[in-house]
From TrEMBL:
Catalytic activity: UDP-alpha-D-glucose + 2 NAD(+) + H2O = UDP-alpha-D-glucuronate + 2 NADH + 3 H(+)
Binding site for NAD(+): 32, 37, 87, 123, 154, 265, 332
Organism: Candidatus Planktophila sulfonica
Homology family: Belongs to the UDP-glucose/GDP-mannose dehydrogenase family.
Pfam families: UDPG_MGDP_dh (PF00984), UDPG_MGDP_dh_C (PF03720), UDPG_MGDP_dh_N (PF03721)
Biological process, per Gene Ontology: polysaccharide biosynthetic process; UDP-glucuronate biosynthetic process
Residues annotated to bind substrate: 151-154, 206, 251-255, 259, 325
Protein keywords: NAD, Oxidoreductase
One term of GO molecular function: NAD binding
Keyword NAD in record: yes
Record-linked SUPFAM superfamilies: 6-phosphogluconate dehydrogenase C-terminal domain-like (SSF48179), NAD(P)-binding Rossmann-fold domains (SSF51735), UDP-glucose/GDP-mannose dehydrogenase C-terminal domain (SSF52413)
The name this protein goes by in its record: UDP-glucose 6-dehydrogenase
């Protein structure tokens, strides 16, 4: 008999997982405490932007296999329960806030049927899975718990779920592994590497992977600082070191650094957990990674000040991009928005454009000025800051934009624009980490 699945938490991760598991042929119920989110998803509509997921969700709703509810008792029918709730940074420190993980496991415990498996997917501090498993042993001894971290990237969520580059499962026994193999059979059959680990290792794999990625980005941004000081070009440097397969060319894009709902909070939570474990020295370097990352934002503000004036009150700055990366409407810890808000706090008149992120950005920073069209955002600007590398910005015509601004000054915070083309149209261009 085919397994039935439940997905607890229908945010970015959960909604994607639910729709993808349904597309593999499983009956899936998604549960979320937010009635508004459940209503939207039940209509086959996404509460956020993710390329490809909208059509998949709509198609899966039509099959009748996929449903959403706020009622936790709906898990009673399911055999495998994926915990996909958020673990944000806590308000009073660096550690992850585990409130939602703990409350969702407690909420499903009374409804779990004999032999069911609870599978954590949320990113948690190492040790959480064992703690939850011990709790379940008392509250729902008929159930077991495993950990199966996700590695999905926003913008590629469906692809990363259905054709991941590996599947990692943290299990305490063979039975849990067998159940997960049954769930992921179609993915395993594609040749996806399968890694069985113990619970703590599975939890650590996720934060280790994100720490490595963050380190790569901050490494190249540190090189950008040195290139600026020494008269070098970080893009050429990145290209040259990237040809060494031991280094690899990906995630060496220098600019204003990383943001989003994962990398910043994950490296901080990892440091906080290491401290609790007495291993803080091992992760001391992550403090520097975080500092380099935040410094990249400050460097843009320094360039603006050095070029325009220390006092920005008389200047209008157009910011292109609000989301933390392109092809997403996510503005969580977005470097672009942070820079926009800091410039506004310094007295500048800041106008922000983004193809998808204006509404989420407005919720976070209601006092910034937003424009739906680039041509309206740049009107009369003393400087244009390219801070999120949407394709639309690479297609801008510098001559057309040049007729709208007050001063033809461009800062490329992502090193993605063709600066020769902009210069040929009479622009002064400053690209981070490039001195010429
Ligand atoms: C990340 C991980 O990649 C993913 O595996 C994990 O599951 C969740 O966290 P995501 O947050 O979607 O995914 O974004 P990612 O594509 O990793 O980019 C993170 C940030 O780094 C973005 O702000 C991006 O602009 C920045 N970045 C990325 C750079 O500044 N330079 C690079 O070379 C690459």
């Amino acid at each position: 008999m085919t397994l039935k699945l439940s997905v607890i938490g229908c945010g970015y991760l959960g909604a994607t997982h639910a729709a993808c598991m349904s597309s593999l042929g499983f009956e899936v119920v998604g549960i979320d405490t937010d009635q508004g989110k459940v209503d939207l998803l039940s209509k086959g509509e996404l509460p956020f932007y993710e390329p490809g997921l909208d059509t998949l969700l709509a198609a899966e709703m039509k099959t009748g296999r996929l449903s959403f509810t706020t009622d936790f008792s709906a898990v009673a029918d399911a055999d495998v329960h994926f915990i996909c709730v958020g673990t944000p940074q806590s308000k009073d420190g660096l550690a992850a806030d585990l409130t939602y993980v703990k409350s969702s496991v407690a909420a499903i415990a009374p409804h779990l049927k004999e032999g069911s498996l609870v599978v954590g997917k949320s990113t948690v501090p190492v040790g959480t899975a064992q703690l939850l498993r011990d709790q379940l042993a008392t509250s729902a001894p008929q159930a077991d718990l495993a950990w199966n971290p996700e590695f999905l990237r926003e913008g590629f969520a469906v692809e990363d779920t259905l054709t991941p580059n590996r599947l990692v499962v943290g299990v305490a026994n063979d039975r849990a592994e067998e159940i997960l193999k049954e769930v992921y059979k179609p993915v395993i059959d594609l040749g996806t590497p399968w890694i069985r680990a113990d619970l703590p290792t599975a939890e650590l794999v996720k934060v280790a992977a994100n720490s490595f990625l963050a380190t790569k980005i901050s490494f190249i941004n540190a090189m950008a600082e040195v290139c600026e000081a020494a008269g070098g070009d970080v893009t050429v440097l990145a290209k040259a070191i990237g040809y060494d397969p031991r280094i690899g060319s990906r995630f060496l894009q220098a600019g204003i650094g990383f943001g989003g709902g994962c990398l910043p909070k994950d490296i901080r939570a990892f440091m906080a957990r290491a401290q609790e474990l007495g291993a803080d020295q091992a992760l001391e370097f992550l403090r520097e990674i975080d500092a380099i990352n935040l410094r990249a934002r400050q460097r843009v503000i320094d360039v603006v000040r050095a070029d325009l004036s220390e006092d920005l009150t008389q200047y209008k700055i157009a910011v292109l991009g609000a989301t933390f990366k392109p092809d997403s409407d996510d503005v969580r810890d977005s470097p672009a928005l942070d820079i926009a808000a800091q410039l506004q706090a310094a007295g500048a008149q800041v106008v922000v454009h983004d193809p998808k992120g204006i509404e989420p950005a407005r919720k976070r920073f209601p006092n910034l000025d937003y424009q739906e069209k680039v041509v309206d955002a740049v009107k009369g600007a003393d400087a244009i800051l390219h801070l999120t590398e949407w394709k639309e910005y690479r297609e801008l015509d510098p001559s057309v934009i040049g007729q709208l601004v007050k001063s033809k000054f461009l800062i490329d915070g992502r090193n993605m624009l063709d600066r020769n083309m902009w210069r040929a149209a009479g622009w002064r261009v400053h690209a981070l980490g490039r001195t010429d």
